[in-house]
C-alpha cells in the first residue's frame, strides 16, 4: 500500500512539473539563473552535471539561446534534491542485464549477441571506451548467458 502511495505522489509531482513546463512558453534567462541560484549551483557545476559546456549554460543564463525544457526541468528538480545526491543515486543505480544491453528481457540469442557486439565495439577501451563500461557490459552479457540463453561467452 505504501508503495502505491509513493508512486502516486511521484506521478503527481511529475505531472505538476510537466504542467509547469508546458505552461511556460519560454523560460526567461533571468528565471533560469534564479533556478540555478536556488539550487545552489554555478553555471559550470550545472554544465558538469548535465554534460553540456559551461559556455552553453552561460548562453542560456544570459538569454543568448533558448533554454531546453530538460534543463529547466532539471533546474527545478535540483531545488529539492542536491546535485551530489543525484550523482550518488546514479552511481548506486542498478540495471538489469537487458537494460544494459538495450534489449527486451525475452530477446533471442541472436539479438543479444548483436547488441553485445555493437556495444563492445563502441565501448571497448582500445577503441576509446572506458574500462568500467566494458566491465558492466561483460557482466550483463554473462547474466544473459546465465539465464539460460545458451550464449557462448566470447567477449
Short description:
This protein has 155 residues and is an all-alpha fold. The chain is 69% helix and 0% strand.
Secondary structure layout:
Blueprint: H1 2-23, H2 29-39, H3 43-50, H4 54-61, H5 69-77, H6 83-92, H7 97-101, H8 109-123, H9 131-149
Helix pairs in contact: 3-4, 8-9
Give structural notes:
By secondary structure, this protein is an all-alpha fold. The protein folds into two domains: 2-92, 434 Repressor (Amino-terminal Domain); 97-149, Helix Hairpins (Orthogonal Bundle). Helices cover 69% and strands 0% of the residues. The protein contains nine helices and no strands. Helix 8 runs antiparallel to helix 9. The protein is elongated.
Which terms would index this structure?
155 residues, elongated, Helix Hairpins, mainly alpha
Largest sheet: none
Give me the CATH architecture of the largest domain, please. Answer: Orthogonal Bundle
- The global form is elongated
Radius of gyration over C-alpha positions, nearest whole angstrom = 20 Å
Tell me the name of the CATH class of the largest domain: Mainly Alpha
Based on secondary structure, the structural category is: mainly alpha
**H/E order of the elements?**
HHHHHHHHH
What percent of the residues sit in helical stretches (DSSP H or I)?
55-70%
Question: How many DSSP H or I helices?
Answer: 9
Terminal-residue CA separation: 44 Å
Number of separate strands: 0
What's the number of structural domains?
2
The proportion of residues in beta strands is under 5%
Average pLDDT over all residues: 79
Oligomeric state: single chain
Amino acid at each position: 500500500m505504501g508503495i502505491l502511495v509513493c508512486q502516486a505522489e511521484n506521478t503527481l509531482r511529475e505531472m505538476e512539473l510537466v504542467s509547469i513546463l508546458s505552461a511556460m512558453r519560454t523560460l526567461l534567462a533571468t528565471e533560469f539563473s534564479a533556478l540555478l541560484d536556488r539550487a545552489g549551483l554555478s553555471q559550470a557545476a550545472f554544465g558538469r552535471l548535465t554534460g553540456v559546456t559551461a559556455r552553453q549554460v552561460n548562453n542560456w543564463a544570459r538569454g543568448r539561446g533558448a533554454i531546453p525544457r530538460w534543463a529547466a526541468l532539471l533546474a527545478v528538480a535540483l531545488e529539492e534534491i542536491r546535485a551530489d545526491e543525484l550523482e550518488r543515486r546514479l552511481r548506486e543505480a542498478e540495471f538489469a542485464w537487458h537494460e544494459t544491453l538495450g534489449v527486451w528481457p525475452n530477446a533471442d540469442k541472436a539479438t543479444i549477441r548483436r547488441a553485445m557486439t555493437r556495444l563492445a565495439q563502441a565501448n571497448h577501451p582500445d577503441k576509446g571506451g572506458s574500462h568500467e563500461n566494458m566491465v558492466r557490459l561483460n557482466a550483463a552479457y554473462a547474466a544473459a548467458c546465465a539465464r539460460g540463453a545458451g550464449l557462448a561467452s566470447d567477449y
